[in-house]
Specification:
Layout lengths: L3 H5 L6 H11 L1 H15 L3 H7 L1 E2 L7 E2 L2 H20 L1 H30 L3 H29 L5 H26 L6 H9 L2 H9 L7 H6 L3 H11 L6 H18 L12 H15 L6 H14 L5 H26 L2 H25 L4 H32 L6 H27 L11 H18 L8 H9 L17 H25 L1
Antiparallel strand pairs: 1-2
Helix pairs in contact: 2-7, 2-8, 3-7, 3-8, 3-15, 5-7, 5-19, 6-7, 6-9, 6-10, 6-19, 7-19, 8-9, 8-16, 8-18, 12-13, 13-22, 14-18, 14-19, 15-16, 15-19, 16-18, 17-18, 17-20
Amino acid sequence: MSTDQEKALGLRDHWKAMIAMTLVSLSSFQYGLDFGIVGGLQAMVPFLEVFGTKDPSTPLGYNIPSDRQQLIASLMVLGAFVSSASAGFTAKYVGRKLSLWIACVGVFVSTALMQATTNIGGLYAGRLILGLANGLLMTHSQLYIQESVPSRYRGLGISFLSYWISFGSLIGTIVDNFAEKIPNKNAYIIPLGIVHIVPGILAIGLFFIPESPRWLAARGNFEKAEWALRKLRPEAWSVAKELEDMRTTLEAEARIQSSVGYVDLFRNPIDRRRSTVSVLALTCQAASGAMFVISYGTYFFEMANVGNAFENSCILTGVGVAALLATSFLITKFGRRRLNMLMGFTLCGISQLVMAIIYTVHPNTESSGKALVGLSVIYIMAYNAMVAPYAWLSGGEHSSQRLRSHTFGLATGVGFFFAWLTTFTAPYFINPDSLNWGPKYGYIWTGSCAIAATWIYFFLPEVKDRTLEEIDEMFEAQVPARKFRAYRCTGTHPVLAEKDQTEYIEERAGNGKNGDAKV
């Protein structure tokens, strides 16, 4: 659908879109930073002195009850689930940019509350408010990137989001590594203060970029959409052609169903299929067990008595950042969604299976501890390079333009729900006060990875390098998932073609009746 001139434009030509993409992608940095920091706080003595209990049987001499551990980790994810699931309503009335501004304010308020409180109830409230803010950040930042970046760089944009999550987690883990040596409450108050920085940068930067052009077009503001496109595209880019493609696609979607709401996601077969694919594609990353590794990595290493838990977590997170950085360079050329996710889930499943078997046969030995660290490195490389970026990408690019806010909001909400379920139930399996399974928890995630890989093989379409309008055309033509990659788009929406044919037949029939009347 692009002209030869547009295809010839490279990354440097799209510098304006790249700046906007980089700024908005910072939204996920704070999400990763929070996981890195909070995961480490639960292994800090000053934090445990305030919010935990004495336990001479543990390596630290303190422990945190499993119910508190559950709520500290899961309330943030629960809040993210609530705000993500309501993205259809927030996007309808306030747009992408204002939603991100509201989220920044939520981060400032929640983090200040967690720094100030010494009451577990205050900590819970801060975690919930932070989750509400994170849900808005993660949902609307990805919607903005999906709708604003040219199709060939859509994968790069979403890989940036995944990269910032891991980089933020790495920074949080490093900060914890140095702060845990502080003998008082500043050990956790200082790391929490770091959370304020990125939302501040984002809040200021949003003044200098336009609103999402596709969001504006979906609301009928085509003049503003054209202005936004001209702010984001090179001078040689055919803005008029892209805007016309948006208009045609929105008209085609209106022929299928004109109303916009959560019920409409499943009202007709085409939207139902698109909604199902979007939700499952994004949610399947929870099936990898990543939230268990991300949320409880430091605590898990500490209780398994594997070297220095903070240093091991830094190494693990650093490897994940390197894997995502490599993906950012490769995704534009080699970023096939189906292939990468299939390989990623296979490696994630195998690494967790081997980890569980080793700890079943040789629990709590030095050799098994080294194996745990090594297999964790393999796992995080596979997850960060092949699962996370493509799951987020697939969750956003398969939805229709008319329902994108509702579809991606629901997909993100369901994804956060399963992430919450993982963080809420994990302590029962790994905490010494509960089942104390430790690495044997991997048996469950091996089966989960196998189920996710099977669904991807049969049902996930391949849409690398396709524009959002081409994806619309293929879904309307009801192309089978495994034939998407080879399908040749014509630029004609089947729904509009059927409408034109119907109108032609009705017109001919009407002319025939008029002719009969004259006789």
